[in-house]
Amino acid sequence: MNTPLLSASSMRDFSVKNIEGKDIGEIKDLVVDWNDGKVAYAVLSFGGFMGLGEKLFAIPLDQFSFDTKNEELVLNVSKERLKDAPGFDKDNWPQYPDAEFINSVYRHYSASPACRKQG
């Protein structure tokens, strides 16, 4: 499957499904490393009701796939792995540069970092 080019603004509030096809949240933002122009991670909103009690998760882009047939973003991560994922609340985003947070995100998903900042 070819992944289309998507603008960052089109991904905001993009609905995300799990591998079973159930809605699990939405993309709130993309965090970009200005040193190399790559997206460090997507911010997924999960849980809560009308913004209350929601938790935000930092997830590397390679953990998602785009279903071109249904035009849906799919998170290829188990519910158990997501529950233990590095996250933060909407009023307390990680401060940048925070190499330890970014590295913990990539370690959690056994992913290769898109960016590593020397601290």
From TrEMBL:
InterPro entries cross-referenced by the UniProt entry: PRC-brl_dom, PRC_barrel-like_sf
Highest taxon of source: Bacteria
Domain PRC-barrel: 7-81
Pfam families from the UniProt entry: PRC
SUPFAM superfamilies: PRC-barrel domain
Gene3D superfamilies: PRC-barrel domain
Name the UniProt record assigns to this protein: PRC-barrel domain-containing protein
